[in-house]
Amino acid sequence: MADCPASAWRARARLVHSLFVAIRTVVFDVGETLVDETRIFARWADRLGVPHMAFFGTIGGVIASGGTLTDAFRLVAPGFDLARESARWRVEDPTANASTSRTRICTPTCAPPSPPCARPGCPW
Question: Would you say the pTM of this structure is higher than 0.70?
């Protein structure tokens, strides 16, 4: 490496720098990636009186065609009002959302970032 010209070192340094600078944002798809939504949608299916797989298929089909979750709910239960149904559910079963909340599912696996590399010259 000692016989490598300075211009090659500069080119290599620019390449390494661009690799580390290129990632500016990381986005996580929360639904089914970080949070398993199967339980909550199964509970909604039970509440609406439809089979789980039929409800999951309806959600998938509506989302694939550009619709929203609310559209899928309204397809299964015409006139569905999420705010009203959620409020009724909280009154009937105050602990219903506590066991399926994102915070409760995510918190045990969340950890502070690891410390940067301690080796001299380490770019991380």
Answer: no
